[in-house]
Amino acid sequence: MTPDLRTLSAMLAASALLMSVVLCVGIRTRRADGFTKWNAGLGLLAAGWLLSTLRGWLPDIAAVAAAEALLFTGFCLQLAALREFGQQHPTRGLWLVPGPLLFAVLLVLLRHPAQLTAVASLACAVALAGTAAAAGRLAGGGAPRRMLQLACDAGALILLVRAAGALFLPPARAELFAALESAALVGLFAASAAASIGFLLLHRERAEAGLQRLAAYDPLTEVLNRLAFMNLAEGQMARARRSGEPCALLMLDLDDFKRVNGRLRREAGDRVLRELGALLRGGLRAGDLVGRYGGEEFCVLLPNTTLEGALEVAERMRAAVAARRLGAVAPAVTASIGAAACEPQAAGALHVAIATAERALARAKRDGCNRVAPPALPRRTRRAA
Fold first, then answer.
1. What is the pLDDT of residue 246?
2. Catalytic residue among 68, 84, 181, 296
3. Does the annotation mark 296 as catalytic?
4. I need a surface site. Which of 112, 153, 253, 342 has the fewest CB within 10 A?
5. Per-residue pLDDT for 381 more than 50?
């Protein structure tokens, strides 16, 4: 290796270690999100570039084959890290086996430097192409995902050019190949840095999404909390006001829930609420809103639904709760539900509908629980009847 290439490899090794430190500072996440593997991959890349600087000082068998195998293992580790980030649970063989296998192959090709460089470059290109494909399969991600994908594709292309140069440039053009090797090292480091930044941004985006979910959802039942429900319901009311579509609201409350929390352990009450949240989420349409309004009280907004349709939905909910035996407590927990039709054109339509549904819920409780109550008729209508 020429002095210029040796200096460049040392600089790249130091830069890769610096990137590893930056990732440690910039990412605070669980080990299961691939961070540990990605950082270990950066460390192996740094070790491979550092080992390249010793070519000419150490025997070729130690410097060349080991350096290329370390680089390949580093790229495989980053592929495993991205698959782990995507919850694909990579096997250890994905990053433990390929490096030693490539090292053994390179030992056979050691007498043919061009073939050695070509095989090592092609192997690393395959690993980077696999990482780009894994990035393309990630759900969401937006710009960070595209940045990571493009960086890995660029790195794979650089390695393919390096392999072609090693195979097709004649020995007399050694200076041209040295220039190509220098450009490939710089380009590969730039691609690796861009990929690491993309991976960092993916983690940050996931952390921000988790914080937003914590701010909007009740952690026990995994339905909307009261504030988020009210905000989204107001937006739904505005849409109903513009479109003129009907809208209805349900208030659901568990019957005699104090018995569960009082006579039984509190864990049983939490289990009941958790299973009720799952039951409500699974029994509603994608556009319906369900939120935890109070301790054991839930509010459901049904867009584009008449009062008659809402009563049918409420009856299905009531029957499902009674049949489910939530939390496996005995006797089975039941639910009472009050219904109300929304009038989006009226002032304070959402609060009016909630108050109407709460009065209907109170009437269902007075009438014996485990039932659905429609809104009370206006006084004039009752007198006429």
1. 93
2. 296
3. yes
4. 112
5. no
